[in-house]
Amino acid sequence: MTQQLRLLDRDGNPCTINTEDLIAIKPTADGPEFYTKDGMYFYPSTMEEMLLMYKDMGFERLDRTNMVNMNHVKAFDPKARKVYFDYPWNESSKFATVSEANVSKVTHLAKEDKAKYKMIPKPSLFWKK
Question: pTM for the complete prediction?
Answer without folding.
Answer: 0.70
